[in-house]
Amino acid sequence: MSQTTPAPHGTGGASAFDGQPPAAPAGDSLTRDAWRRLKQNRAAMCSLVVMAVIVLACLIGPWLTPFELDEVDWNAIGTGPDLASGHVFGTDVNGRDLLTRTLHGGQISLSVALVATFVSLVIGVLYGAVSGYFGGRTDNLMMRFVDIMYSLPFMFLVILLMVVFGRNIFLIYAAIGAVEWLDMSRIVRGQVLALKKREFVEAAHALGVRDLQVVTRHLIPNALGPVIVYVTLTVPKVILLESFLSFLGLGVQEPLTSWGVLISEGKDMMETAPWMLLVPSAFLAATLFCLNFLGDGLRDALDPKTR
Amino acid sequence: MTSSPSTSGTSSSLPPARNAADQARADTLTRLGLAAEAPGTPPLMEINDLKVDFQLPDGAVPAVKGVSFTLNKGETLALVGESGSGKSVTSTAILRLLPELAEIKGAIRLRGEDLLSASTRRMRELRGNRIATVFQEPMTSLNPLHRIGRQIIEVLALHRDLKGRAARHKALELLEQVGIPEPARRIDSYPHELSGGQRQRVMIAIALACEPDLLIADEPTTALDVTVQAQILRLLKSLQQRYGMAILFITHDLSIVRHFADRVCVMRHGELLETGATHDVFESPQHAYTRMLIDAEPAGEKAPVAADAPVLLSARDVRVSFTIKRPLFGPKVAFEAVRGIDLEVRRGQTIGIVGESGSGKSTLGRALLRLLKSQGQISFDGVDIMPLDKSGMRPLRSRMQVVFQDPFGSLSPRLTVGEIISEGLRVHHPELNRAQRDARVCDALSEVSLDPGMRNRYPHEFSGGQRQRIAIARALVLKPEFLLLDEPTSALDRSVQVTVIDLLRDLQARHGLTYLFISHDLAVVRALSDHLIVMKEGEVVESGSTHAIFEAPRERYTRELMQAAFAPDLGQTHH
């Protein structure tokens, strides 16, 4: 090892590099590394593209189609896909354009997924990290609370909320979010329990770093791999939950719709108007496929063992 | 690859072709344990121009680049090299246990049989039967859910078709041979009920179950304490004499090899640099790298400080206990890891704490820095630090810093090197702006002889030695007076170790640092410290000036430690 010129030590702020630290090229960061590996995963990249197309279509599609969400076309009631009339995917039994309704429904389904996942991410990660980091009695109390939440039947919770607050789309967000963060907090807690014994955490303690900083700078970033993967698995789960609620009639209200509602309506007309079931199902299935492939790809890309 | 002219072994000129009758005769003789080791006997194993490439997405990475050597019956061949030299890949290739992305070329012959073209089924017959293996990690190479007797019997049932009482009888015999006390009781133990050394003995019993021709020992003693290490080596040696098997001994530690191996192969970067009889290689190494490895023993001593130097850290009757079990009712079950230690560190001094695993030396170190709960009295620079809480300790933290053992675990993988080093500055010098912090980080990096231009990189891009330098820089950036060094060189290759020791010594001289150096490695402690404390089971066995203890150890345990570390006697079995 070559020795460089000794720098003064213990002379206050004086530095050999005062004012002009040498340029430091950016390194190959973990995220960039993971992105590079994700790009090599063809299934994940295809899924990403398809996913983007679906999201874009749901966001701007309803304005581009020639029909309104609740516009009834008296000339085409319950007709199949037909290019001439403009109903590309046909109409429902009330003569409303199915494509428009499916894209609208996508907005609801995807936004529920986004909000509920975000809620579960924020609450779950913080709750789990705090519980795991402090351990002992704190951990015990916090985790028993999670156990109690787990033991409440989900449907009971939703119906209870309905009764108290009336039917409201935000209730669905809240109900799903309130349930989904439980899993997340368990996962993060497990990660943190393993991480907090690692030497870099001990080194942070030796530096006098504050607890909150240890959690946010050292523990959460290192637990992020499994968290990101779990998020991609939560999104389809939430969409399915919302579909399930709407399917039971506890979800969104007319004229608003969601993929779950459309599928529920479609299944009643399965024999006479199969497109009513097939179109929203195809959208939902495509989205779930994409997210699952994306989750797989992310898990591989973020796993240090594949490096 | 023809870059090293000395690659062919001393006796590889023999033709590999042998007829079946010859082979059968040799087999019978081996079974009877009568095979002669006459010169002219074909080698047991022959490796010819072995090449292993790993086909990674980024292209092929060569791990072994054309290695040739032979191994005779009853011989011990040591494959020596530092991490990344391809020694383990070579041994795994013999068993054909490499992952599928490894492409193996060349030839590996065991008794003339080409292993690389053998069927998977044939390989299964050979593994554990003709070729047996002992791995490094005795904690993980035994199945924790099965009793050890069952794990030995598994091999017997597989290759010898022994079952029931006969198998159990044989297993007992094996356990007795490998020196497990009370084998009749131990045969029904689970792995976690045994010590590390005993587990390694069980691994050896499993390996010996079928009386193999070749035993591959992949760093079998690296995870063990020195005294246990010597016992295991002695055991291997005596079993070799008894069974006449050949041993392929893979290690990074040349000092073991000197007393253990008949011949040595030195590897670096996948190439075989040098082969020869152990004595010749040690006496007149042909390759500069071999010479460097032999000389890489840390040298030098530290002069003691003046007797009236001020005391920086002192401890009285420090005790640390851990709660093992906290039953719902009844008293807690506690284990006392540190049992009343007194300690006085003077400015500029380096106190070495040596001890085997479980001696409480690391626990003591952490307790002194108040990273663990403890009882007793600890004062730093005249201030009693025991009653201080977290925020009370914070101002002192910048004056007492720590460097840990594992260079891979002690740096957060998701922060850049610059962020890691500057973290302490954020805590202790919040008045510094970004550019000033950056300048201090550059200072610290150049002090540990790293290029400051690398501070935006992430830890995974650095080697073990570089990471350890980063960890030292993280401690140094706060300009501490006292540095706790918890086995800072144990995870490093010998050649890297020496450079880190030089760095630590240099930093101490430049900044008047005070060190508390914890290690199990006596050679390193001798080179760095002027005062020595020997610990065993949480208590001080012996303490005094390093020079005096190394010259004339008073206690029996200290003598045992030194005997095992510096002059392991492996020739015969004795107690």
Automatic annotation (TrEMBL), chain A:
It is found in: Cell inner membrane; Cell membrane. The chain crosses the membrane at residues 43-64, 108-134, 154-176, 273-294. InterPro entries: BP-dependent_transpt_permease, MetI-like, MetI-like_sf, OppC_N. Residues 106-295 form the ABC transmembrane type-1 domain. This is Oligopeptide transport system permease protein OppC. Pfam families: BPD_transp_1 (PF00528), OppC_N (PF12911). Belongs to the binding-protein-dependent transport system permease family. OppBC subfamily. It is a multi-pass membrane protein. The keyword Protein transport applies. Its main location: membrane. Keywords: Cell inner membrane, Cell membrane, Membrane, Peptide transport, Protein transport, Transmembrane, Transmembrane helix, Transport. Residues 1-29 are annotated as: Disordered.
